[in-house]
Structure to design on (168 residues):
């Protein structure tokens, strides 16, 4: 009787411990919380915030932040932002800044270089590869790794640097 209780205790503790470790990594649903909305008037951005606003004309998200191992064994992260266009105009692209922390080197300037028609969202087909073996990218890679392993997106901030409207 005592043996079965001890066995059950170890099985249950192992189950809880494995669930705790399994949930500690950053999952795609955590990234859905990160968004940045903007209001646009006459092809000019007038207001942007990371708080919820009703009917934003632009919504910037960070749907792609995933670890990869390259064919040569180097660890890296794929990162990309998307832009949802509700401005009433077609866009040729945008420049978005993503801050992953407050230290130098923990920022990524993302260029969204595709046509985004009205009521469409840009894709993540083109993304940034942040490699662990590129010296200038090491602070950013280490911060992304920390965010991923701890599933902590509290310091991830997005801002819109430039919005490029299609010439008519």
């Amino acid at each position: 009787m005592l043996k079965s209780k001890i066995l059950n205790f170890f099985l249950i503790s192992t189950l809880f411990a494995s669930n705790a470790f399994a949930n500690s990594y950053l999952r795609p649903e955590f990234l859905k919380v990160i968004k940045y909305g903007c209001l646009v008037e006459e092809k000019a951005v007038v207001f942007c915030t990371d708080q919820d606003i009703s009917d934003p004309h632009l919504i910037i998200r960070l749907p792609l932040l995933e670890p990869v191992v390259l064919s040569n064994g180097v660890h890296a992260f794929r990162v990309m932002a998307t832009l949802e266009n509700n401005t009433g105009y077609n866009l040729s692209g945008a420049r978005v800044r993503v801050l992953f922390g407050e230290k130098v080197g923990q920022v990524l300037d993302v260029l969204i270089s595709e046509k985004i028609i009205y009521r469409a969202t840009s894709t993540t087909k083109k993304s940034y590869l942040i490699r662990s073996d590129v010296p200038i990218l090491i602070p950013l890679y280490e911060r992304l790794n920390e965010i991923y392993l701890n599933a902590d997106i509290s310091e991830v901030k997005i801002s819109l640097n430039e919005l490029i409207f299609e010439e008519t």
